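Retro notes (design track)

What went well: tokenization of the new backbones is finally stable.
What didn't: we kept losing track of which sequence belonged to which structure.
Fix going forward: every design gets posted as structure first, then sequence, in one message. First example under the new rule, 204 residues:
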């Protein structure tokens, strides 16, 4: 990895494949995998296990911890791939704050598929009754910097290949040089630049 996308956040609703994809992408890129769920406090996990969705106040301290992880990694030049729901635009902007070159891979999965995946796994705290609230909170990334949207119904290997290819292309486009602050918005097959990066970040 290089400083253009020193960190990748794999995002989306419960069950969309964040951990599976982030883990595989980290292994392919030689980066560190971070499981965002491991940074939730016990109260948050208990809340979800009991069938109540998290609200902003529950998520902010968690996002602060994850943002600190990304910032530290960015300062050390350590490549990382984080699995984190990052459902809302302002959550993603918080993660961008300390490491502006972070890229996002949004795993786009329909609600029925997410419910099926969450319902069929065992030993996880997340009940499928919370899928509706995940989609209620989800703000799909549109015109956000360094963001790839992937059809998460595709096989895992194909998704990982797409993410790796996107990372390579954004890195090549940025050329390691003075354009590293540019934003690259990629929707499969089409790349366009928006510069500088802060023009595309708003606090919604
Ligand atoms: N592309 C895929 N196709 C089919 N099944 C998948 C795919 N990716 C992941 N899965 C399966 O879906 C389930 C959820 O995957 P995973 O735990 O990676 O998602 P997640 O978004 O991290 O979930 P959560 O945030 O709820 O922990 C797992 O059983 C996993 O094996
Ligand atoms: O922001 C949130 O509501 C949470 O991070 C959830 O997305 C879960 O932790 C995760 O998906 C586990 O199923």
């Amino acid at each position: 990895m290089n400083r253009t996308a020193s960190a990748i956040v794999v995002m989306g609703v419960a069950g969309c494949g964040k951990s599976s994809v982030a883990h595989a992408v980290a292994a392919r890129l030689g980066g560190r995998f971070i499981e965002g769920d491991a940074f939730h406090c016990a109260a948050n996990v208990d809340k979800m296990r009991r069938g109540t969705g998290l609200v902003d106040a529950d998520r902010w301290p968690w996002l602060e911890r994850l943002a600190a992880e990304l910032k530290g990694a960015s300062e050390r030049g350590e490549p990382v791939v984080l699995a984190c729901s990052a459902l809302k635009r302002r959550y993603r902007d918080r993660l961008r704050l300390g490491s502006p070159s972070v890229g996002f891979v949004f795993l786009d999965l329909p609600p029925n598929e997410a419910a099926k995946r969450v319902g069929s796994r065992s030993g996880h705290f997340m009940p499928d009754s919370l899928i509706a609230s995940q989609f209620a909170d989800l703000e799909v990334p549109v015109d956000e910097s360094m963001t790839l949207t992937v059809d998460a119904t595709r096989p895992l290997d194909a998704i990982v290949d797409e993410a790796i290819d996107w990372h390579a292309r954004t890195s090549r486009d940025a050329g390691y040089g003075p354009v590293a602050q540019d934003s690259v918005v990629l929707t499969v097959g089409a790349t366009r630049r928006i510069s500088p990066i802060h023009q595309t970040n708003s606090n919604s």
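Added context from the reviewer: Confidence is low (pLDDT under 50) at residues 176-204.
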